[in-house]
Every structure is written in C-alpha cells, then in structure tokens.
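Hey, quick one: can you model this chain's 3D structure?
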Amino acid sequence: MHLRLAALFASCVLVSSWAQARTTHVVRHGQTLGGIALEYRTTVRELVAANPRLKSRPLRAGQSIVIPGHDEVDPKHGKGSGATKAAGEKGSRWSGKPKHPGVVHLSRLATTEDAIVTVRDRSGRVPKAAHPVFARMLRAKGGPTHAIDARLIALVGIVSDHFGGRRLEVISGYRPYSPKQHTAHSNHNIGHAMDFRVIGVPNEVVRDFCRSLRNVGVGYYPNSVFVHLDARHESAFWVDFSRPGEPPRYGEGGVDPDEGASDVSDDNPLVGKLGAEPSDDAKPVAATGEGSKTAPSGAASEAPVPPANDSPTVDPANN
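Sure thing. Here's the predicted structure for all 319 residues.
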C-alpha cells in the first residue's frame, strides 16, 4: 500500500514538474519576444496577453514568462490543447498518401521548367537517372551545374511523399562560391542544399516536418517564401528575418546556419515572383531528358532512401 502511494505521489510530482516546464519559459540572454514566439509556435500578441507586464517592461535574462496554449498537454501521450494541439492538426491537414510514392514533381521558379523524376526505385535506392535531372533543376543562376548530393535527393523524396506528392518549387539550389556570400562554407556551394516551397502548404508546416528528419539543416525565413533544407552530419535549425537581397538577420534557433537565397537580390526580376503563392491546379508535365519519368525497374541505383523520419544512409560533408 505504501509503495503504491509513493509511486502515485512520484508520478504526480513528475507530471506537475513537466507541466510547469511547458507553461513557463526562462528568458536567456539576447532573446527577443519574436524569437520566443517562434520557438513555441505562438505570436508576440499572445505572449503579451499572457504576460501583461511585458507591455511596459523589457525582457531580461532570467525572467520567467508564461507560454500560452501549453498548459493542457498530456505528458504521457504528448497530446493536448492550445498551441501544441493546433500545430499537430495544422500539419496533419496538409499531409497525405502520394499517388506515386518516390516520384517528385519539381518546378523551377526562375524558368518555370517542370520535371517529374523518380527518386526511389524498387530496391529503395536513388536511381542514377535522377542525378542529372536534379543537377539541371537545381542549377545556379546563369547556368552552372553541380552534382546534387544523393542524400539531399532522398530527403526531397521524403518531403514530397509526406505532402502527398505536391509540386515542389525550387527557389535556389546549387550556388558557386562567392566572396560576397554571408556564410563561408555554404552547403549550397557543394550541392547539398535547396531552398524551396511545397505548393499549397504553409512554410511553417514544411519547416516543422523537415525538422523531424535526422541530420539536416533547416532554415525558416518569415519574410520570404521558402524553407531551406540541407544534408549534414548534425541537425541544425535557424530563423532568418531578412528579406530577399538583405544580409541575414538571425533570430532564435540552432547553430551553424546556412545561407538562404541571397542571390535573389532586389535588382533581380525574381523578387517580383516571390510574393505570390503559385497555384497547384495545373497538371504536372514531365520534362524531357533522362530521369524525368519513372525509371525502369532495372535501372542502376545508388544511395538507399529510408522511410520518413529516418535519415538516408549517405552522410554528406559538414556545412
């Protein structure tokens, strides 16, 4: 009897401690309300409403603030109401079973090119025929191409399958090194990164799913229209508040940020295209050339493609 009471008391303490950790946040040095809001998937307005003193007093390191919408989460099942539940419902709304698993529909914002390419064959590997298609669709401004990392191709396939095979619009892929770039060693320079959006899906939802993948870099750009995804040894996440053509303005997030589509500058005609969300009504049109259609079952392959939420087996160089 005493053992049961002790176990019950311990479980109550554990749940209470867990709930307290979820409902309050201790401000760290250099944090902003905007960054904290992004971290907990809420808004500055909701934070201020839950913490009226923030209206007249600035944030200070060590201060505890209440996080709205995180007070009814079940620690046993990871379910609840408020922001956590809303985020889950928001993500499930956009996911779906693809009609053709392992087949990616890419479009290129700069040229309006389309390509339908198989990224996973029957043995679960990336077909060799997929590489020239990705190299072409992710080529740099002006035409330079680079081999695209097999693991990045596999990751793109996972993202495509998760969102039901929706069209992925490439904003930027390979970019040759430039002394003017803000990140000295960008994964864009070696074909390990892609800036993109999933047509018809909010970038916040794409961002959250990409962060569930292993050993990836994910960048979120609230003032632009894309999500950054790269293949690396250890996962990283960052938020960049800059606009197209501006230097990075990092908020909350992890370390080792990569560079976004800084080549889309203010004097580039692409900037005019970035504001509008394209329609997904048009039917995919297969591009001509090797690898643009489903590869035959006997096609040569490389780089196994894992199931969703697991990492492909080919490790790229660090950023």
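One thing worth noting: Residues 37 and 222 are 12 Å apart (CA to CA).
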